[in-house]
Amino acid sequence: MKEILAQPANYFDIIYEIWLIVSVIIYLIVFIPGAYFLFKYRYRKGVNERGVPTKDSKALEAMWIIIPTIVVIYLATQSFAFYNAQRTPPEGALEIKVTAFMWGWEFEYPNGKQVYTFFNSVTDPQTGKYIKPEEVNDAVVPYIPAGKPVKVYCTSRDVIQSFYVHPAKVTEDCVPGRITHLWFQINKPGNYWVFCREYCGTQHSKMAAVLRVVPEEQFQKWVSEGVQPKQN
Ligand SMILES: [Cu+2]
Questions:
Q1: Which of 11, 18, 96, 192 would suit a FRET pair with 107, their CA atoms being 20 to 30 Å apart?
Q2: 52: CA distance to ligand 1 center in Å?
Q3: Assessment of whether the complete model's pTM goes beyond 0.85
């Protein structure tokens, strides 16, 4: 079995494969006889010049109504089930708040810890070379526990942005005055880029941020560092 790097990316991959296989099968069923008939009934002088006689077939008509209906119902219900799984975070997910702004992100953890990251792009402005996500300064990197579901509440301070967690293949609009959500789980510790996926202005490309995915213990240590107890 192939290792699942991140969820719900696996749902996206499976549904993509299902649609691909169904589309290829339909394409072959339509194209191969189509090409054959095109050749078989091509115009030839003196052969069937007034057309080919046809006859009705109720069975054939029923078949091409029933089979596509079953295929469409299957695709719709399967996709909807996957969509639900993709939208519904598992119980006990870590909840974080992401506020987008021109041009960056604010991450807030349940204990009040905040991380700001802004004006980050994937290339170095001087050299134009790609920056590795592990090279990004720790001070602007939010940590995420590996193998744990994370529910993100998204909103925006100014214009519509979209929080895109690249390895988990999920994206959600961050809309001013509204709270939207997404969830993801990254199983393999490492450094991953997240992006804004809604063109939001001239510095849109500077909204790249890094998620540092670490083992649970390391995450707990990090999240409690430098946080004053909340005052009531
Ligand atoms: Cu943007």
A1: 11
A2: 59
A3: no
